[in-house]
Request: fold
Amino acid sequence: MPPQHWSPTSWQQHPAAQQPDWPDHAELDTVLKQLSTFPPLVFAGEARALTAGLAQVADGRAFLLQAGDCAESFDSFSADAIRDKLRVILQMAVVLTYSSGVPVVKVGRIAGQFAKPRSSPTERVGDIELPSFRGHIVNDIAPTPAARVPDPGRLLTAYHQSASTLNLLRAFTKGGFADLSQVHTWTQEFVASSNEGRRYEVIAEEIDRAMRFMEACGINLRAEQRLHQVDFYTSHEALILGYEEALTRQDSLTGDWYDCSAHMLWIGERTRDPEGAHVEFLSGVGNPIGCKIGPTVTTDEIIELCGRLNPERTPGRLTLISRMGADHVGENLPPLVRAVRDAGHPVVWACDPMHGNTFTSDSGHKTRHLDAVLAEISAFFAVHRAEGTWPGGVHIELTGENVTECLGGAEEILDAHLDQRYETMCDPRLNARQSLDLAFQLAELLRS
Ligand code: PEP
Ligand code: CO
Reply:
């Protein structure tokens, strides 16, 4: 049930940070009207199923793996890229589930992750000062003033690209690709020959053997849906509120409102003002929601956010995504975890080990070191183990491709290598090998 004064438009009465300065409001209104007549991308029942999955996580009986691009691009939009991203996430989930015995709830930063919050409204490229790039849903990354003008037509492109991405994801996850008998075929060539790839093959072989064993025992594996299909959910930062409002629909079954642009939506570190428009908007939709929690958050603020975003204390409704930076978790996180626990809020605690560990390398690339990423996850686990709470999940920026954007990993990517395949439009992503490496280390933490 939404708060009393909530409606899909009530956010407009609150200060909305990070909204584009649309030059043509008549055109924006036309686009938003059009979007509000388009079919929903997801159904309320699916969002409720994800809430139920996350309730298991909140209860310490499952683990959340949320992963994908920092920002999806209108330019590198292809079936191969979607498949490669999905399969690295499925591989990570297999490693985690097989090694730790804990079920994994799989959520992509995909099919709608187009908007980027920026620290400054302008940025310097060479000698010119330009309006900041805000993600392909708003403007283009090309370093010219014309490209940086917000274009409402992009909202429609974002909707259509989300729809086709989701369509392919549904086909892959329900139509045979994600079948557990296919675990071997998920390994990409450049991963197969690596250490991580070989480690993965061992698990894949053991799963095959277990399936042959069950078959030999007379269990009809073909009849068991869960071996052949995967539940895979979509998520993005709900940043551009006009777009989110236009896709918000009333569920005919329950009468509740759902933001049907994705299964799960999250609030970013820069827009989590408890009095702000983003918190107001997401407080009233029935979807499971996330909220990023950075190093400046206070215990009072976190309790206020929990109260506003999940007043009924529904398990699975709220995921707090901590992104402190590896060096700050040990100090910052314990009082927050204690405050939330003592207030009786049933949250999922997830760790975003990416955004607090970004720096600019000597070669001038925005990057992250896999060691820092792992260190933040380890520290996050240590805090939860000490407090008796459940380290519920991770939130990772990755791609299925063989990019060189983050440092380290078994192939030891160095600063000098970053130039080879630095392709991200926004933050640096782990490549497939680094992601698999992370999954193995995470599995060890989960097991211990
Ligand atoms: C992001 O998830 O890409 C992002 C901008 O994160 P944050 O809001 O935590 O800075
Ligand atoms: Co990012």
Remarks:
- The chain has one domain: 10-447.
- The first strand starts at residue 63 and ends at 68.
- The chain is about 40% helix and 15% strand.
- The longest helix spans residues 79-100.
